[in-house]
Amino acid sequence: MDDRDLKSKTISGAFWNIFFAVANKIITVVGQFILAWFLLPKDIGIANMAQSMATFTAVLSVGGLGDVLLQRRNFKREAGQALWLSIFFSTIMALAICGMALISPVIGKPEVRNLLFILAFTIFIGAPGTVLVGGLKNKIDRKSTRL
User: What kind and span of H or E run contains 96?
Assistant: First the structure.
């Protein structure tokens, strides 16, 4: 591979990375405006309160697990273990959020209970995503090292 081809691929990759980051921010802002349009201020406050209560469990997040799989360069053999680890930590996070949902009426915020259960469910079903993203990164890394 010559330098011109490498430079072209690098610029193209940087462009797409920046494009998707900007698109993600735009979609997030548009989503916030849509929520603000349809929800009452009290409802937005309840949703934000539930989200902030659920963020306490971020300590148990396994966001870097995909990068570890990529760095170890043995994805196929270790993907199963990583999946179980991701499921384990996501389950612990979901259970902690469910615990907060159960005690929310006691602390005077019964209106956030259902939202916390929904957030717990989304964290649980997102568990395989870490390993799947790690697999995509692994494929991209293998292709880029062949060039």
Answer: helix 75-103
